[in-house]
Amino acid sequence: MVKLLRIKLLVLFVLGGLLIAGCSYGSFSPFFGGTSWAQRTLDRLTLREKIAQMLVYHMNLQFMNTDSDKWQEVLKLVESDGVGGIHIYRGEVGEALTTLNTLQRKSKIPIIWDADLEYGLGWRVPGGTEIPYNMAIAATGDPQNAFIAGNITAIEGRAVGIQLGLVPVVDVNNNPENPIINTRSFGEDADLVATFSARYIAGMHAGGMAATAKHFPGHGDTGTDSHTRLATIPSDSARLWSVELPPFKAAIDAGVDLVMIAHLQAPDYQPQANLPATLSPFWIQEILRQKLGFQGVVISDAMSMGGITRNYTPEYAIVAGINAGLDMILQANDFPHFVDVIEQAVLDNSIPEQRINESALRILRLKEKLGLHKNRLLDPKITRSVYGTRANESEANRIAQEAITLVKNVAQQVPLNLVEGDTLFVVEVYDSPFNHELTTITKSLRAQNVPLKVFPIDASDDAEYLKNILGKIPANAPVLVNAFCRYLMNKDRIFLPAQQTSFLQHLFAKTNRSILISLGTPYLLQDFQNVSAYVCTYGSSDQAQRAVVKAILGQEKIGGSLPVTIPGAAPVGTGIKLAANPVKFKAIPVETGMVLKQALPRQVSADTKSLMPILGEAIADSAWPGGVLLAARDGKIYFYDGFGYHTYAKIEPTQASDIFDLASVTKVIATTSAVMKLYENGQLSLDDPVVKYVPQFSGPDQQNTAWKKTITIKNLLTHTAGLQPFERFYALDVDLNSRWDSLFTTRLDTVPGTRTVYSDIGLILIGKTVEAITGMGLDDYVNQEIFQPLGMTNTFFNPPAGKLKRVVPTEFSKAENGFIRGHVHDENSYSFGGVTGHAGLFSTAGDLAIFGQMMLNKGIYGKTRIFTPETIEYFTVPAEVIQGSSRCLGWDSPEGMASGGVYLGPHAYGHTGFTGTSIWMDPENQMIVILLTNAVHPNRAYKYPRYFQWRQRVHSAAYECFTDLPRNPDLEWWNRWKDLNE
Fold first, then answer.
1. pTM of the predicted model, to two decimals?
2. Distance between CA atoms of 888 and 719, rounded to whole angstroms?
3. CA separation (Å) from 23 to 154, 160, 437?
4. Are residues 385 and 437 in the same domain?
5. At what angle do helices 190-206 and 246-253 cross, to 10 degrees?
6. Is there a single domain that holds both residue 338 and residue 433?
7. Rounded to the nearest 10 degrees, how much is the dihedral formed by the CA atoms of 761, 765, 770, 773?
8. Residue 14: what pLDDT?
9. Are 765 and 690 within 8 A, CB to CB?
């Protein structure tokens, strides 16, 4: 039944290909001359037009209006000397259907459109089918899969106007350290590569597309990426003829249309050492044309690559390349200039005109072979019927599934073998920087109820961060590592960075229940031979990830075999075969917390008409130049808007998404949250003395040292440590270490535990405590544990440069000769690097609302739990360290002329920041009110007293939108507002 289905699919592919091609797909005539369309066309072309046929222009097929520079440029080229070919980097189907037809109609000679389609059309033009890497295709062991892959690529390519595919790669990858070919190759065996390449070419031809064998004379046995510099391959003649060249001979015998020449050398084999094959008559004329008998089009690799540009000017390289035998040249886009250069070279006899005629004729014959002389236009009906079809996607997915290779399986870790009570520790390893996204693998496992905990790491993470993760994974716990270890041009390496390698080696030494999935090079195992199980996908696409999930859960059989040898670990052909044996996991009861949604005010019975007028009055009274107010009830945001301007100059209106310096709101959102997490994880006790973690906290005399030994974390959180409110450390010492010494040895203001004195110093010390316990900066820790899981993407210390336009300025600074914008306003925090426990955090009202709703939900937001309900309860009620104090653990509770207004419920909690920020959560009324302003603008004197009065008025007004929220009789209005409710 399966075989019958595949036969039917193949028939459809072939028919589809012939339909698109519009003609039979013949082969090149072995001679020049005659009266073919190609010859007749050549005879009427000018020299410049012949030269233009040899050059390939580069562009993206994205929307261009008719007066755009790009459109005018390509139109001028087409309507002058013409364009032989156009190379597509990225495209859109709709644009292809319009742009290609428009340019083809305007062109005197049909244009041949090409693309690098090594992974199918989905990689270049969204909506197309993504094809597994060549090595994955070979891992299936079935050459017919190569035919199918080539056929799908051809049919879909022709459907969007691409007649020439720069595929397949026929290099023999026999160098594990090859940084640029690797999984793009079918494997290390020349015969296997030859067989799969020939079938791939046959599939392309059946679909009506011209094929290109690359990268001649073989880019597989080098440790150099020719994108960066000239690559070198071994010069052994016997090896070249037995390993590197046979796949090219097989491709030629299969009727391949083009051969791409690589920027590499075999210095002791070729007559002239250090000359790239691209510029070498020896390789192109003597080896490729004479000894291998190739009569088709010879195309260069991109002439902008380092293998050429490091040693040659573009002008020299293009002239030398043509004289060497290049027919078609992938050149940078200075198209008219290079037509001029080549024309001048012909006129001064540096290039024989016959050399131009030969190349132009070969290219015209290729166009004739493709049927472009009869029909150069696209038919949208055909595109809709064959592009990205379910049948094509199904075949590609099947190939990806059959490719999955189980190389090692000690103690039968695959299928996934968890016992009751196990948690799978998943480590996502990215070999590139700044990427902590969850993989498709992890999302799929989670969707199938696999109990797991995820730790993402990337190349930008430091050793302390990795050490912290290692400490969180218990000995002999089940571990799954998803390692992205992929080739990438200009990267010049294929294995993981040394720091990640060391981390994984320690991790695999810690557990005997580990699975490593290589989402890229199969050679990764040679660095991790202490891993229990090893699985290869040969690629990192969602397609490959979905396939490997099915494999490790036993939902599909595993039958792939290694097309390469992994040195010291596994010989070529290794592959443990497993029958399907599905592993099922019980559904985990999913707890969810309310997720904020913007709603119409009437949906929560709110009347917000009075809010904007009140905010406007505050601006008129110079309480602040502008700000953002967000108010939510029962999970619905009923008011969220910016008001006023960034400055009193009224130039830049404040937007709801603007980013504010939170000042002391940092104390709760970042620092207290970090303590809550550490407390919950059992990593600290609130009764621990601070000196346990910060032993430098002592002095300046014997009495202060004795008192400081009694100060606990709880004292710092409740401002009962006896510390001074603040000191100007930024002014005391120029040297950073000296400033820290001054802080640690600061004199106490009173005996610890006897009085509540609000102190920045205490929260700075808590920040240092968090760093001491976690081995991470406070910023990294809260980002990992709080902000990132909640999706608070606009919350950070030291805002990145790309966000600065949204950051609202604070105070005028003489030192900066302008307003402070983009770095923390607090001088102490700034002097300590912008990451401190008392200040430095920046955020938006939207992000803070997510945090606030998580707190109201008792520690959970959506499906993401941050804290337990017990932790929330413990930290948000008055701590009573000093009887009668409103101070909770880090948080404040309402009393007197409360900043959060006179309607707060008795169990509300919140905090304020010096720059003009405030946030209050009210569990009884399920309310969140956030007011972010830059009240210290243009200087801090503007705050007094109007800001404090209007802050209370605005928070209260957010409650006054409802008729069912009574005033709290224990709270007082500022005198200014006392007659409001009389």
1. 0.74
2. 10
3. 14, 17, 47
4. no
5. 30
6. no
7. 180
8. 44
9. yes
- Domain closes at, from 488, 522, 552: 552
Query: Based on the structure, what is the number of domains in the chain?
Result: 3
- Asked, for residue 723, whether it belongs to a domain, the answer is no
Q: How many CB atoms are closer than 10 A to CB 736? A: 11
**Residue whose tokens read 């006897």:** 754
Same domain, 28 and 150: yes
Helix ranges (DSSP H) in 516-668: 542-552, 611-620, 666
Structure tokens at 21: 């091609």
Counting as low any pLDDT under 50, the low residues of the chain are 1-34
Read off the DSSP letter of residue 897: S
Q: Are residues 876 and 962 in the same domain?
A: yes
Token pair for 277 = 């094959």
| Amino acid, res. 357 | N
Please indicate, yes or no, whether residues 379 and 410 belong to a single structural domain of this protein: no
Closest C-alpha to 694, from 683, 709, 704: 709
**Those residues with Cβ within 8 angstroms of residue 181's Cβ, 6 or more apart along the chain or in another chain:** 169, 171, 173, 215, 219, 220, 487
Q: Which residues contact 164 (CB under 8 A, 6 or more apart)?
A: 85, 112, 113, 114, 115, 209, 210, 212, 257, 258, 366, 370
Same-domain status, 306 and 441: no
pLDDT at residue 22, rounded to an integer: 42
Residue 717 domain-assigned (yes or no): no
Co-location of 338 and 441 in the same domain: no
d(CA 48, CA 342): 9
Side chain identity, residue 456: P
pLDDT in tens, 54-64: 999 999 888 88
**CA–CA dist 120, 539 (Å, integer):** 13
Dihedrals φ, ψ of 415, to 5°? -60, 160
Q: Is 822:816 a contact under the CB 8 Å cutoff?
A: no
The tokens describing 433, both together, are 């920087």
Regarding beta strands 812-813 and 636-644, do their DSSP bridges make them parallel or antiparallel, or are they unpaired? unpaired
Please give the pLDDT value at position 30.
Answer: 34
Backbone angles phi, psi at 401, to 5 degrees: -70, -45
Judging by beta carbons within 10 Å of its beta carbon (0-12, 13-18, 19+), is residue 521 exposed, middle or buried?
Answer: buried
Secondary structure class of 286 (helix, strand, coil): helix
What residues contact 602, with CB distance under 8 A and at least 6 apart? none
Q: Closest Cα to residue 324, out of 408, 262, 416, 378?
A: 262
Token pair 């644009």: residue: 95
Residue 337 maps to a domain: yes
CATH of residue 416 = 3.40.50.1700
CB 161 within 8 A of CB 100: yes
Residue 956 sits in a domain of what CATH number?
3.40.710.10
CA dihedral over 826, 828, 831, 835, signed as positive or negative: negative
Residue where the block lists tokens 């937007």: 655
Pairing type for strands 636-644 and 626-633 reads antiparallel
Q: Residue type at 685? A: S
**Structural domain for 930, as ranges:** 604-682+775-977
For residue 656, CA distances in Å to 207, 630, 639, 847 come to 53, 9, 10, 11
d(C-alpha 913, C-alpha 710), whole Å: 29
For residue 228, the model assigns a pLDDT of 66
Four-point Cα dihedral 4, 5, 11, 15, nearest 10 = 160
Q: 99 Cβ partners below 8 Å, 6+ apart?
A: 61, 64
What totals of helices (H) and strands (E) does the chain contain, helices first? 36, 29
Cβ–Cβ < 8 Å for 693, 768: yes
Choose among 102, 104, 108, 106: nearest CA to 46.
108
Say yes or no: 334 and 248 in one domain: yes
Single-letter amino acid, residue 9: L
Tokens 């980097």 belong to 89
- Summarize pLDDT for 220-243 with one digit per residue, the tens: 888 766 666 678 887 788 889 999
947 domain-assigned: yes
Active site residues: 227, 301
Give the SS3 label for residue 350.
coil
From 552, 583, 612, give the residue that closes a domain.
552
